[in-house]
Amino acid sequence: MHNKMKSMILLAALLGATGAAQAEESVWTWLGSIWRQNEVNAVSNAAWQEECGSCHFAYQPGLLPTQSWDKLLDAKALEDHFGENAELDADTLKEVQAFAQENAADKSWYKRARKIAKATENGEAPLRITEVRYIKRKHNEIPEKMIKGNKDVKSLSYCDACHTQAKKGVFDEDTVRIPNYPDWED
Amino acid sequence: MKRFTAMMMVLGLIAAVPAMASPASDTLLAQYKSEGASKPDASKGKKDWTREEVVDGEKMSCATCHGSDFSKSGKHHRTGKVIEPMSPKVNAERLTDVKKIEKWFKRNCKDAWGRECTAQEKADFLTFLLAQ
What we know:
The complex is a heterodimer. Chain A is mainly α. Helices cover about 45% and strands about 0% of the residues of chain A. About 5% of the residues of chain A have low confidence. In chain B, a hairpin with a 2-residue loop joins strand 1 and strand 2. The longest helix of chain B has 16 residues. Chain B is globular. The chains are: A mainly alpha, B mainly alpha. The interface between A and B is medium-sized, with 15 and 13 residues.
């Protein structure tokens, strides 16, 4: 009787876990990724890739907290998006907003996204990824001539100028290649 | 002889049709017409392409980012992101999507001229670009 009860409970627990896992597909993507220790969730939404990526690197939602995305992805705010008009039609805007809200740093399981969430949990939510304290600190040691003074980089904003796997949401040091500075090592 | 003349006329008609007209551009040209545009003028579109306006202290035209060689890619003036060639002959995807064309007209006219383009200006641009 006791054993039967135990196995019933176990079975129920297992079933429950599978159900939850199916609902949270991102958990499995996360578990299955060899980068799970460090990185941010890659962009998995076509509208996001198209709308953000046609003008600049399609920064992953995990690089900023929800509050930042809410400010940036507001219909009015997009009319002057860092000096550019980036208006979206209502349907696309909704989709992009939803993708940001589901995958923002503070919603993400990924370790680097979690660090960004932590770095931005107090004070005003930043509008620029380059203003996130954690990201600033990570780039502190790199001399100015290799970023601003480097004609093939120019700014910290161009993630993929040096982070060769940036598109996949991978930003670890091993994947960094600074243009014109082949010998650079952390 | 009569037959030859007829053939030449047919050929002439074919040549008169913009080389790369697509269902999307047909739809939009009809729409611009219904919004009050008269006959599209490709030469006006060509002139407007390099017409500069000062927006936020910066001289801007279409060519600022797209360039004027339509077979080559352009570069976003701020982010440096590569913009695929405008010529439909080089870039088969170009000017084939109604929503995309309208979206970029809206954004880019505001960025380059500080206002939306009129139906006439858009018809001129579209006709000019289709022939590139």
